[in-house]
Amino acid sequence: MVRGDKLYLTHILDAIRSIESYVEGLDPVAFADDPLRQDGVVRQLGIVSSILDSEAG
Questions:
Q1: Which of 5, 44, 52, 57 could form a disulfide with 15 if both were Cys (CB 3.0 to 4.6 A apart)?
Q2: pLDDT tens track for 11-50
Q3: Is the pLDDT of residue 3 over 80?
Q4: Rounded CA gap, 50 and 11, in Å?
Q5: Domain count of the chain?
Q6: How far apart are CA 41 and CA 13, in angstroms?
Q7: How far apart (Å, rounded) are the C-alpha atoms in residues 40 and 42?
Q8: How far apart are CA 38 and CA 42, in angstroms?
Q9: In which domain, by residue range, is 51 found?
Q10: CA 34, 36, 38: angle at the middle one, nearest 5?
């Protein structure tokens, strides 16, 4: 694995772990009622998307 690939994967895993911590113990209704957590999840998904887009191109 190339060093850059490992770094990208590390960032993706960090984002996934953040998402997991944001939603841990929440049911869908509680998540739907918490715009701050929603924003955090969307932000982390955007990070993952940006990384994958940069690697695809």
A1: 44
A2: 999 999 999 999 999 999 999 999 999 999 999 999 999 9
A3: no
A4: 11
A5: 1
A6: 14
A7: 5
A8: 6
A9: 3-56
A10: 70
